[in-house]
Amino acid sequence: MVRRVLLRIDRLRVLALFLALAGLAGPVVDAYAQTEQPRRQQNQQKPRPPAKPATAPKGPKAAAAEQAAKLEAAGPSQIGTTTVARFACMIDADTGTVILAKDAEKPMAPSSMAKMMTVYLLFEDLTSGKLKPDTRFSVSERAYAITRGTHSSTMFLEPTDQPTVNELIQGIIVDSGNDASVAVAEGMAGSEEAFAERMNKRAKEIGLTGSVFKNSSGWPAEGQRVTARDLAVLALRTVHDFPQLYKHYAQRDFTFNGKTQPNRNLELKTVAGVDGLKTGHTEEGGFGQTTSAIRDGRRLILVLNGMSSIAERAQETARLIEWGFRESSNKTILKAGDTVAEAPVWLGEKEKVPLVIPQSVMVTSMVGQTAQPRIVARFDGPVAAPIAKGAKLGTAVVTMPDNRTIEYPLLAGEAVERAGVVSRVSTLIRHYLLGWAS
Question: What would the pLDDT profile of 51-77 be if each residue is shown by its tens digit?
Fold first, then answer.
């Protein structure tokens, strides 16, 4: 009996212990859960918004329709095809003919395309011998500070650097370095203000009629402006005036102070024949680019400005370069040495002397159009003998299809000796007795 009671007591103790353990399990698990759950929530990232459905690539028709809508909204050009750029100018380098013009004479912010004028002056001083490629310039605090704390383009100059002129040219063209531009201005003129005066003086001399430069870099400044037409002229002068130095504009990358930067002119790699020149961007001016391309010996210069993005700039530049070469062509109407007219000779062994043009004359016409220039020979005649071959005797005035007039010298195509005494006397008698009717 006692054993049964003890056994029952033991069973009750076991049962009590089991119930106690069971009773403690709940609080232990709950305590763990309250501690761990917040920790998990802290480790979890914020819920992401649902992913946007992937956009299917646009087909050729859809892309063409979108481009057509952009062009229609952009408004027409005064000359040539429509462009989404706010300002545009394309010229043929051989004839000077304007193939495309959209507000090409209106003032606009130059952005970094102003650096082309800085480089032009650098090229001039290199050509004249005032500077050498290994000439070194200092880096002032102003040059160093212009790119610090901003998104400004930089060559990564340091105040302790002594960059050479050759390095600074690459830093301006390839890197579009504002610091390099200031270093050049101060090194060449003592101050950027003095350099800007030189920029403006030379700009007028080479035919930039609507441009005012305030600094060497194109950094936004009150009163600073250019026109698309002026930038095209500047690009053309650079190509013609410095054929050996112009090659710098085709450089695709440049390394300085351990940092390699690619040229921002993307068309150097993607569009056949492109070998320059300069991109630009500011909030005021938008995205712009001056481009030069040559194919089969023919060069086109294109200036665009006021676009919305790098991608749009690259796409529009490539499209219009292709359009220019495809839709226009040059034709030689006079070859060097061709006779334009004949001038009567006074008291010479020959009665007439051929007037020849010393250089070829070409005209640019659009596809489907016939170029019909008008040529007028102007000279004072009769021309008194003796006449040396190559002597300038007059001018050929060529009126181009776009109504521009270009003057070319007219030279004596051959020598004409003075007539003998008998011949001269006979000519004089006929002239005074019968006049020119004889």
Answer: 555 555 667 677 667 777 778 777 889
> Which CATH class for the 335-437 domain?
mainly beta
Is CATH 3.20.20.70 correct for 88-328? no
Whether residue 162 contacts residue 136, with contact meaning beta carbons closer than 8 Å, is answered with yes
**How far apart are alpha carbons 232 and 301 in whole angstroms?**
6
Task: Please spell the DSSP secondary structure of 229-281, one letter per residue.
Answer: HHHHHHHHHHHHH-TTTGGGGG--EEEETTEEEE-S-THHHHSTTEEEEEEEE
Place of tokens 């892309």: 63
Residue 416: how many other CB atoms lie within 10 Å: 26
pTM of the model: 0.79
Give per-residue burial for 10-25: e unless 16+ CB within 10 Å, then b: eeeeeeeeeeeeeeee
- What is the structure's pLDDT at 358? 95
| Per-residue model confidence as pLDDT tens digits over 133-156 | 999 999 999 999 987 766 789 999
Rounded Cα distance between 363 and 227, Å, is 25
128, 382, 431 from 438: Cα distances, Å = 58, 15, 7
Catalytic residues: 112, 115, 176
Condensed to tens digits (0 to 9), the pLDDT of residues 269-324 reads 999 999 999 999 999 999 999 999 999 999 999 999 999 999 999 999 999 999 99
